[in-house]
Design goal:
With about 200 residues, the chain is an alpha+beta fold. It is built from 5 helices and 7 strands; from the N terminus they run ββαβββββαααα. Strand 5 and strand 6 form a beta hairpin.
């Protein structure tokens, strides 16, 4: 189970209308000055920023209200969009709980967060969740996500399978946030198994 293990102070927070999972991919277009500053800060020191689901407000414009649990993100690449806008590719790291939030004069959110030790060591996937592994393999084949070439051993990891299904199944953001906040990987897999009938074709 995940538990609070270390504190990070005054990290930049990026509220988004999406949920980032540990090991998950994230691409963003960066054009607001507050987020250009965030990118410069993270690039200079190889630092993380925090991604939180927006509970109130908008991604663009004034400050948004972030969810209490989010995921650290590390920038791994840059690109330029067809409109000439800076883009970043990031990857999800550890989960965290926000202890305190501050808003800078430019609207950028800063937070003190307690990071979790996420599900270490690897939790083997129990046989009763074999159907979830099969469904994940089919989704990966159809959708070709960035981690489509992940080692076979990943499919034996209950945590990895749960997070990847949470990314690929057509869930709403509230459900994804619920899955992110779960600390028991078996509870997460059980929830995913129970919701599968919703996606069966008539």
């Amino acid at each position: 189970m995940a538990r609070a293990s270390s504190l990070l102070t005054d990290i930049p927070l990026f509220p988004l209308a999406t949920v980032l999972f540990p090991g998950g991919p994230l691409e963003l277009r960066i054009f607001e000055p507050r987020y250009l500053d965030l990118v410069r800060e993270c690039t200079r020191g190889d630092k993380y920023f925090g991604v939180c689901l927006i509970l109130g407000g908008e991604e663009v414009g004034g400050p948004a209200a972030p969810a209490a649990v989010g995921t650290l993100a590390r920038i791994i690449d840059f690109f330029t969009t067809s409109e000439g806008i800076l883009g970043i590719a990031a990857e999800g790291g550890r989960r965290f709980r926000v202890n305190q939030v501050r808003v800078r004069s430019d609207g950028q959110l800063r937070g003190d967060v307690a990071c979790w030790t996420d599900d270490v060591p690897v939790v083997p996937l129990p046989p009763e969740f074999g159907l979830l592994e099969t469904i994940l393999r089919r989704l990966v084949e159809q959708m070709a996500p960035p981690w489509k070439d992940a080692p076979e051993t990943c499919y034996d990891d209950a945590v990895w399978v749960g997070f990847r299904l949470a990314e690929l199944l057509p869930l709403d953001t509230g459900e994804r946030q619920h899955l992110l906040e779960m600390t028991d990987p078996m509870e997460r897999l059980g929830w995913l198994r129970d919701v599968l009938p919703r996606f069966q074709r008539a």
